[in-house]
Design brief:
- The complex is a heterotrimer of chains A (249), B (287) and C (367).
- Chain A is of the alpha/beta class and 249 residues long.
- Chain A contains ten helices and ten strands.
- Chain A has helices at residues 45-52, 78-81, 98-106, 116-130, 145-157, 175-190, 202-208, 226-231, 233-241, 244-247; strands at 5-16, 19-30, 34-38, 60-65, 68-69, 83-85, 163-167, 194-198, 211-216, 219-224.
- In chain A, helix 3 packs parallel to helix 5.
- The relative contact order of chain A is 0.17.
- Chain B has one domain (2-286): ABC transporter involved in vitamin B12 uptake, BtuC, CATH 1.10.3470.
- Chain B is 78% helix and 3% strand.
- Chain B has helices at residues 2-32, 39-57, 61-88, 93-115, 140-162, 164-174, 176-181, 186-208, 218-233, 238-258, 264-286, and strands at 130-133, 136-139.
- Chain B has a two-stranded antiparallel sheet.
- Chain C is mostly helical and 367 residues long.
- Chain C has a domain at 47-255.
- Chain C has helices at 12-43, 47-72, 80-98, 102-124, 130-148, 177-199, 201-211, 213-218, 223-249, 259-272, 279-298, 305-320, 324-330, 333-342, 348-366, and strands at 159-160, 251-252.
- The two termini of chain C are 22 Å apart.
- The chains are: A alpha/beta (249), B mainly alpha (287), C mainly alpha (367).
- Chains in contact: A-C, B-C.
- Chains B and C meet through helix 3, helix 4, helix 9 and helix 11 of B and helix 4, helix 5, helix 10 and helix 12 of C.
Chain lengths: 249, 287, 367
């Protein structure tokens, strides 16, 4: 492919004490596209994610961002390089308003606000983009799951990322809310942000991703377009076969 | 040589009290993940209770121990159910911390207003008796108190290990949500744990009265020692608290003997900070 | 990013009502300040009342210093009396042993406290949760024990500063009036500084750390770096309060660093509302005044009665108003009535629109 990869993962392995959570996984994320990672519960998706985002270092292997080795960079240096993430278990700043949540992020990242006015303007823009504008003065702990998930994305976007990691951003949403979320992610991608997401909801993955990576028991078992992956006999066996109820969600 | 042995014996003895305080803290920390900053003041309340029982009812301090433990248990249970449990709901660590700090200030100043700031002591017929153990001379009350602290420690271990309530306390310590799911009354366990913590502190206070001055600020020395014990021994670990308590007692008496009594506190605090930081850095690296 | 449909058009009426509201707030603040400024004219012959005011000023300042760390960053320090004491000692030693000008000593004291706290707490910030509180207690006690055993610093006897003619250069006065004004100035300056921090990058970083350190890291905040910044600023302000305390009382001793005083420095913030910059002001004004009154009235017969009151108020506020008096006021009808009736506060939307228009104008001017 002609597109240059923005993230290259080379043979990463993670062991917790005796347990090997992720084993020898390699893949690439292409710039400007939406790449997805799927797999049954406990397949090592979140662990892989956390390693790429600097939350814990891999036991073995290296990770490159635009050709630069970022394997041992601490998590807080990522937004400066243009990488932002969301959390599977939402971590809003509970006692701050939605607006303040986003303002906090606007002060950091690749194009940080230099004064309160800039931060406010940037936050307004992001809130508007993510459809949270009307709720800007609510305390984030008082919002429901869908809005908190949106807030996670808004906060990540406020750092002006080139690459956005979304960790199960649609889990716990109903079909309408999922539709909204899919539309939002597509808009984010269209604005030039590369997206890498973990998702359980197959419909979302199929409609969004151009490339899908399948993990099982910590190992990469397939990679390709959603169609290719869905029709891979091994994937059907280990993933859809054992997890049919998830597969048709 | 014999002075060193004497210091070791004294260190073991005082360490027994630190261990008892630390174990009480750890029972509380284990189930609620909060630090009880009024633990020393509870010890002080135990001292005054013993003093009152001795002065007004003529009760021997050792005979008073069960009564003191019982009263302290009730007091602890009341504090837990009326103040701490409701505040746990706000999930504000700042508030919980200053709630217990406030309780400590309240208790010590109530003692100050009630009994005045003068030092009180209890003198019984056997206060002056000493026991000769090889090269070591030990006051009889100190020896009895030490034996009692050891017995209580063993009882506490047995309680946590073999009884249903003890197992429930351990279950809540490990995972309070899981414990609730399997039908343990978590709020009840909180009350029980805080009551036990208070009773242990009160008992330590009662056991100290025969050779320690009773004053409204008597608890503050033990309060921070208990925290050191808890941190060095591992937050929530009961055996850890026991050994850390003994270690701290030994460190104190040996530093007094070998360096200077003046630097005792300074060295204890600095050692504490160093141990804490080094250990946490190791844990953080290992992750 | 498209889709910008924020209301840019603001009617003149909205702008006017917003400016009336801001004007009303300004009038209220100015009136309050004016009252504080002229109070000494009436009470300067009552040293006791003057003393209460000065006490409120410096204790509230200390509480604001605590609040930067405790309320804003979520790191509950119980060592602020020690920072204050350390600052006071650093100043006084330089003043008495080297006879340096007090104002230079003040800066020296602040630098010493800032450096010591930064160096000690830097390795400690890898610890999360209750550990920081424990280290802060141990740190405070260690400093106190160190001073107690240090002959040069006068051991338990402490240090006395010289008395003499009134002089601004020496920051030494017989009357309490100059201390009143300096204390008030210090309070206001620290408040304005805190208010600035609250809306700045630093403030948001600290608040993010308070809420969740993982989130903080995810948006690019280095938790350790910002926590050290917070502890250094907080300790430096406490050191400055120490200088003021020493100059005012002309005497310091190691008891200044007792744990009880650390607790006393926290109470105004927690009672007033630790999540508000104004919390310590409210709490300090109320608590320290009452406490001094009680101590004066009953101190001789019932020592400790003021601390009982302190503790009771603290416990009751935490139990029934967990967000503090200010948090309670913010959600009460009284505030609504005052806002609507006296200050003529327009709706949130109008205020925001006015602010946006203002932003627009100022950015336009700059270009």
């Amino acid at each position: 492919m002609a597109v240059q990869p923005i993230i290259e993962v080379h043979n990463i392995t993670k062991r917790f004490k005796g347990l090997t959570a992720v084993k020898d996984v390699s893949f690439e994320v292409e710039k400007g596209k939406i790449t997805g990672m799927i797999g049954p519960n406990g397949a090592g998706k979140s662990t892989t994610f956390n390693m790429i985002c600097g939350y814990y270092p891999p036991t073995e292997g290296r990770i490159f961002y635009k050709g630069e080795d970022i394997t041992s960079k601490p998590a807080y240096e990522y937004t400066k390089m243009g990488i932002a993430r969301t959390f599977q278990i939402m971590k809003p700043l509970k006692n701050l308003t939605v607006m303040d949540n986003v303002i906090a992020s606007a002060y950091f990242g690749t194009d940080p606000a230099k004064n309160p006015r800039e931060a406010r303007e940037k936050a307004m823009e992001i809130l508007n983009f993510t459809g949270l504008y009307d709720k800007r003065n609510t305390l984030s702990k008082d919002m429901g799951t869908p809005d908190q998930k949106r807030l996670e994305m808004a906060r990540a976007l406020a750092t002006n990322p080139e690459l956005l990691f979304l960790d199960e951003n649609m889990a716990g949403l109903n079909p309408t809310e999922t539709e909204d979320a899919i539309r939002l992610i597509r808009r984010i991608n269209e604005s030039g942000v590369t997206v890498f997401l973990i998702e359980h909801i197959m419909k979302a993955v199929v409609s969004l991703c151009e490339k899908v990576i399948v993990l099982h028991h910590g190992e990469k078992i397939a990679v390709g377009t959603p169609d290719e992956v869905m029709n891979d006999p091994y994937v059907m066996e280990v993933y859809l076969g054992t997890k049919k109820e998830d597969g048709n969600a | 040589m014999s002075t060193v042995l004497q210091a070791i014996a004294n260190g073991l003895m005082i360490g027994g009290f630190y261990a008892m305080m630390g174990m009480g803290q750890n029972v509380i920390f284990g189930v609620m993940k909060i630090i009880n900053f009024c633990h020393g003041e509870m010890l002080m309340v135990g001292m005054y209770l013993t003093f009152v029982l001795y002065t007004f009812f003529g009760m021997d301090p050792y005979a008073a121990v069960p009564f003191v433990a019982f009263i302290m248990f009730i007091l602890g249970a009341c504090i837990q159910s009326s103040l701490i449990t409701p505040s746990l709901g706000t999930k504000s660590f700042t508030n919980l911390l200053f709630l217990t700090v406030g309780l400590g200030t309240l208790l010590s100043n109530i003692a100050l207003v009630t009994f005045g700031s003068s030092f009180r002591t209890i003198t019984t017929s056997y206060t002056g008796n000493v026991v000769q153990l090889g090269p070591v001379t030990m006051g009889l009350p100190k020896l009895i108190s030490f034996v009692v602290t050891i017995i209580i420690t063993i009882l506490l271990f047995a309680f946590l290990k073999y009884t249903t309530l003890g197992k429930q306390i351990r279950a809540v310590s490990q995972n309070s949500v899981g414990a609730e799911v399997v039908g343990i009354n978590v709020k009840g366990i909180y009350i029980l744990a805080y009551g036990i913590g208070a009773a242990l502190a009160g008992t330590a206070g009662a056991l100290l009265t025969l050779f320690y001055v009773i004053s409204p600020t008597a608890g503050s020395i033990f309060s921070f020692r208990a925290l050191i014990v808890v941190v060095v021994g591992g937050l929530g670990s009961i055996p850890g608290a026991f050994f850390a308590g003994i270690f701290l007692g030994l460190l104190e008496t040996l530093v007094s003997l070998l360096v200077s009594p003046m630097y005792k506190d300074l060295i204890v605090f600095v050692t504490f900070i160093v141990i804490l930081v080094i250990r946490q850095n190791i844990i953080a690296r290992r992750r | 990013m498209d889709q910008i449909n924020i209301k840019k058009e603001v009617s003149d009426e909205d702008l006017k009502s917003a400016s009336i509201y801001y004007r009303n707030i300004k009038i209220a603040v100015c009136a309050f300040l004016a009252v504080l400024l002229i109070i000494p004219l009436f009470i300067k012959d009552y040293p006791y009342i003057m003393n209460v005011f000065v006490l409120v000023f410096y204790m509230t300042t200390l509480s604001m210093a605590w609040n930067l760390l405790g309320g804003m960053t979520g790191q509950n320090s119980l060592g602020h009396a020690a920072y204050m004491g350390l600052g006071a000692y650093a100043c006084c030693l330089l003043m008495t042993k080297a006879e340096v000008n007090p104002w230079i000593c003040c800066i020296f004291g602040m630098i010493v406290v800032g450096l010591v706290s930064g160096i000690i707490f830097y390795p400690c910030f890898i610890l999360k949760g209750p550990y920081f509180t424990l280290v802060s207690i141990a740190f405070g006690e260690a400093i106190r024990q160190f001073i107690l055993n240090w002959d040069f610093a006068g051991n338990a006897i402490g240090i006395s500063l010289s008395f003499g003619d009134d002089s601004w250069a020496e920051f030494r006065f017989m009357s309490k009036v100059p201390y009143y004004y300096v204390g008030l100035f210090m309070l206001i300056a620290v408040y304005v500084f805190m208010k600035k921090i609250d809306r700045s990058k630093l403030g948001f970083a600290l608040k993010t750390i308070r809420e969740d350190e993982d989130t903080a890291a995810a948006i690019g905040i280095n938790p350790i770096k910002y926590k050290v910044i917070a502890v250094v600023i907080s300790a430096m302000i406490a050191g400055m309060v120490g200088f003021f305390y020493a100059s005012y009382n002309r005497y310091i001793d190691p008891d200044l660093m007792l744990q009880t005083y650390s607790v006393e420095s926290v109470l105004p913030a927690v009672v007033g509302g630790a999540s508000f910059v104004e919390g310590p002001l409210v709490g300090g004004g109320i608590m320290i005044t009452i406490s001094e009154f009680l101590r004066n009235q009953f101190g001789a017969i019932l020592p400790g009665i003021n601390l009982i009151m302190y503790a009771l108020v603290l416990i009751l506020v935490i139990r029934f108003r967990p967000s503090g008096l200010l948090g309670w006021y913010m959600n009460s009808d009284i505030k609504n009535k005052i806002d609507k009736g006296i200050l003529k506060k327009p709706s949130m939307e109008v205020l925001e629109a006015a602010q946006a228009a203002n932003d627009h104008n100022s950015s336009g001017r700059r270009v």
